[in-house]
Design a protein that fits this description.
327 residues; mainly alpha; cell membrane
Length: 327
């Protein structure tokens, strides 16, 4: 079997080679598809920290994804001249600066993860899943009932936000920013998995009683993991909203939470590059089969079923032939 490091290197090479070829061939849409893959991969890496390391099956991760998107939308809409209602409910100083927007998205999503985690982690199993789903639905319907920022119709941002020294309207440059962020969160994930905190988190997932026996708090470890996970997913939401220059309540829906989880399961739970592979497969299937049939998810379901039945390691695990652990 191929070593997992080789599989990871091949995935990384594709992330570099495909957009480079598209730039050379003047295929900007391919670069946009690749950017979509990278942003979804960032969101899935965030979930993989909570799910793969902490064993937290969250069906409410779209809360953080949507919060990141709305952080971008609200700040950018206050900075542009056009207002859909011509009058804002809040007197905010908007900004088109990506670093400021990213920081806002990360902090707001992290704070939401603290609030949700403090309540949800009082439960386990299916109850934890239902509580995270409930928070997701509350956030979704709140966004729908918020007409000041588009309500059900969403909010359009007519000019992409700015980053010092770059023209973010050029697809390959915006892709480079997103790829850099993916590299950062993958590095963070790898370090967490190998750190003492990662060992505590793994032990808390497997045998929490033993963690308590040595004087550590498994719930606190899971809360920290959930906060880190939410912050990363919120960053992905801001990037996704900037890619589309549009934010809507669908970013907060339970379907979005399910899609992020599908990315992780497809690629491989607890695999470092599993979320990247899963996001790539999902976007590729959506692009290739979406034009053939509006029911393309049927084929996705069949593939997901085969992967789950064949082993827990996802696509990366099947190729490397190893268990669901980080190499």
């Amino acid at each position: 079997m191929i070593r997992e490091r080789t599989v990871n290197a091949a995935i990384l090479a594709l992330l570099v080679a495909v957009p480079a070829w598209a730039q050379w061939a003047d295929e900007p849409f391919t670069i946009t598809l690749a950017t979509r893959v990278v942003i979804f991969a960032v969101a899935a890496v965030g979930l993989n920290i909570a799910l793969g390391l902490g064993g937290l099956v969250s069906l409410g991760h779209a809360v953080y994804f949507g919060l990141g998107g709305y952080a971008m939308g609200v700040l950018a809409s206050h900075a542009q001249n056009y207002s859909p209602l011509m009058e804002w409910p809040l007197q905010l100083d908007g900004t088109k600066s990506m670093p400021v927007i990213w920081l806002t998205a990360i902090l707001s999503s992290a704070l939401a993860a603290v609030a949700i985690g403090l309540l949800a982690l009082r439960t386990t199993g299916v109850y934890f899943i239902m509580i995270t789903l409930a928070f997701g639905q509350m956030a979704y319907f709140f966004a729908i009932s918020w007409p000041a920022y588009g309500g059900e119709d969403g909010l359009s941002i007519y000019v992409r936000n700015s980053f010092p020294g770059l023209n973010t309207l050029i697809p390959i440059q915006f892709y480079g920013l997103c790829l850099a962020w993916l590299g950062v969160v993958l590095f963070l994930n790898a370090r967490l998995a190998r750190s003492s905190f990662g060992l505590v988190l793994t032990a808390a997932r497997q045998v929490p009683q033993r963690v308590e026996a040595v004087g550590l708090d498994p719930t606190r470890a899971k809360l920290v993991a959930l906060v880190i996970s939410g912050a990363i997913t919120g960053l992905a939401g801001a990037l996704f909203a900037d890619l589309n220059r549009f934010v809507s309540p669908t970013m907060l829906s339970w379907q979005m939470s399910g899609e992020i989880m599908v990315f992780v399961i497809l690629g491989g739970v607890a695999r470092l590059f599993g979320p990247v592979a899963g996001a790539g497969i999902f976007v590729l299937l959506e692009h290739l089969l979406g034009g053939i049939s509006e029911y393309w998810q049927l084929f996705l379901g069949i593939i997901l079923l085969l992967i789950v039945l064949s082993g827990r390691g996802g696509v990366v695990g099947m190729l490397s032939g190893r268990g669901a652990t980080h190499e």
